[in-house]
Amino acid sequence: MSMSKTKTTRYDVAEHLRTPEDMAAYLEACLEEANGDAAFIAKALGDIARAKGMAQVARDAGLSRESLYKTLSGERIPGFDTILKVMAALGIKLHAEALHR
Q1: How many structural domains comprise the chain?
Q2: Which of 39, 54, 74, 95 has the fewest CB atoms in 10 Å of its CB?
Q3: pLDDT tens readout for residues 44-86
Q4: 36 within a domain of the structure (yes/no)
Q5: What is the extent of the structural domain holding 77?
């Protein structure tokens, strides 16, 4: 009995983030899941930036493409100013909400 090899590709969430609403919902889900892990949030922003076009996001954020890739790799914690610049470039607004405990 021969086993045929199944071709698999790595799932890339960026391919499924097509609308601003998709992007915002994805980031919101990641924020809830992050548990305070800023690098995880940076990686989520990286996924959204790739979906939108890394070169364009870098230009709009005033960063080089290479710098943006490194910043949003999930291997480092970017400065909050950079997070805000990237979010603005992505057209995503940060907002605060009271926790009901």
Answers
A1: 1
A2: 95
A3: 999 999 999 999 999 999 999 999 999 999 898 999 999 999 9
A4: yes
A5: 19-90
| Residue 84 domain flag | yes
Please say whether the beta carbons of 48 and 60 come within 8 A.
no
Residue 10 lies in a domain: no
Cβ contact 69:54 at 8 Å: yes
- Two structure tokens written together for 26: 């994805």
| Three state DSSP letters for the chain | CCCCCCCCCCCCHHHHCCCHHHHHHHHHHHHHHHCCCHHHHHHHHHHHHHHHCHHHHHHHHCCCHHHHHHHCCCCCCCCHHHHHHHHHHHCCCCCCCCCCC
Rounded CA separation 9/84 (Å): 32
Q: Is residue 95 part of a domain?
A: no
d(CA 22, CA 3): 38
pLDDT(91) > 90: yes
Q: Is the pTM of this model over 0.90?
A: no
